[in-house]
Amino acid sequence: MAEPDDETVVQTAAEAAEGVVFAHYRQSDVRDLDVTVTFEEGVLDIDVYLNAPDDEADPEAVADEAARAAQEAVDDLFADDTEA
Fold first, then answer.
1. Does the structure show a pLDDT above 70 at 83?
2. How distant is the alpha carbon of residue 40 from its chain centre?
3. Which residues pair with 34 in a beta bridge?
4. Which of 1, 4, 12, 63 has CA 20 to 30 A from 79's CA?
5. What is the DSSP string of 22-63?
6. Nearest-CA neighbor of 3 among 84, 83, 78?
7. How far apart are CA 84 and CA 48, in angstroms?
């Protein structure tokens, strides 16, 4: 089976990152969210910027968690591909 294409990798990572953010915050509480994902020549780069109130959770910690979740989602995507 072929490896996932770049678009699938980017979409998977972005959805995972957004999922983590919105598990911690209501969408209406998030002032700004920027999830930047690139996948070129087999290199994944993820950057998550989050501007949200810090009374519910630490925005920096949530952004870090979101980036890790994005990486794990992509790792799982490739693991599923090699197991198929």
1. no
2. 16
3. 49
4. 63
5. HHHS-GGG-SEEEEEEEEETTEEEEEEEEE--TTTS-HHHHH
6. 78
7. 31
Question: Position 55: which residue type?
Answer: D
The DSSP call for residue 1 is -
CB 30 within 8 A of CB 51: yes
Going by C-alpha positions, the residue among 7, 54, 52 that lies closest to residue 34 is: 52
Which CATH fold topology does 6-83 show? GMP Synthetase; Chain A, domain 3 (3.30.300)
Separation CA 76–CA 24 (nearest Å): 22
What is the DSSP code (8-state) at residue 5? P
The pTM of the full predicted model, rounded to 2 decimals, is: 0.91
Q: Are 51 and 32 in contact (CB under 8 A)?
A: yes
Rg (CA), the chain: 14
What is d(CA 76, CA 83) in angstroms, rounded to the nearest whole number? Answer: 10
